[in-house]
User: Which sequence fits this backbone?
């Protein structure tokens, strides 16, 4: 694919990713839309390569941090969901399964903990509000953080499996159609 073709596709993916992140003003989509926008990066890994995918990730991260109203969603994209498809492609092509999954879980947990540390310490968002435990005391307040991290790891497994399956479907079905629709030389 030509440089101008890669630039055009990269620009479309960047714009679409930022637009996808915009509705995160609705709290319901704070986790789903960064994950969905991150899935567009895997498309760019396949069609454009890891270097272009990283550039698209960087552009979307900067634009979303400036434009997206919900900073939690923008930070989750920048801290994990945006680069994860690139990391996934690298790890799965170079490592055996066990070290691959150890690294994936370590990166996920570090990114999520860092994201919420940034939201609370730097952006000054109330921790109780982020965890959904405003005014709660006792058992719920005490164990909410480990519970949320545990549920997050389960969601991460589902995200990883879904990403693999979407890549497989793209390569088997959609890639030929995409290349016919956009025959960049």
Assistant:
């Amino acid at each position: 694919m030509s440089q101008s073709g890669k630039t055009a596709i990269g620009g479309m993916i960047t714009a679409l990713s930022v637009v996808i992140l915009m509705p995160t003003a609705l709290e319901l989509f704070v986790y789903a839309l960064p994950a969905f926008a991150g899935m567009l990066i895997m498309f760019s890994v396949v069609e454009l390569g890891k270097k272009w995918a990283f550039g698209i990730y960087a552009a979307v991260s900067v634009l979303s941090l400036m434009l997206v109203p919900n900073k939690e969603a923008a930070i989750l994209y920048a801290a994990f969901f945006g680069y994860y498809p690139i990391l996934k492609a690298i790890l799965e092509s170079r490592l055996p399964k066990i070290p691959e999954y150890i690294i994936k879980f370590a990166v996920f947990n570090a990114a999520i903990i860092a994201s919420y540390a940034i939201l609370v310490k730097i952006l000054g968002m109330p921790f109780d509000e982020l965890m959904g435990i405003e005014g709660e005391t006792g058992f719920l307040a005490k164990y909410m953080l480990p519970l949320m991290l545990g549920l997050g790891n389960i969601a991460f497994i589902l995200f990883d499996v879904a990403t693999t399956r979407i890549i497989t479907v793209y390569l088997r079905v959609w890639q030929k159609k995409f290349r016919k629709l956009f025959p960049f030389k």
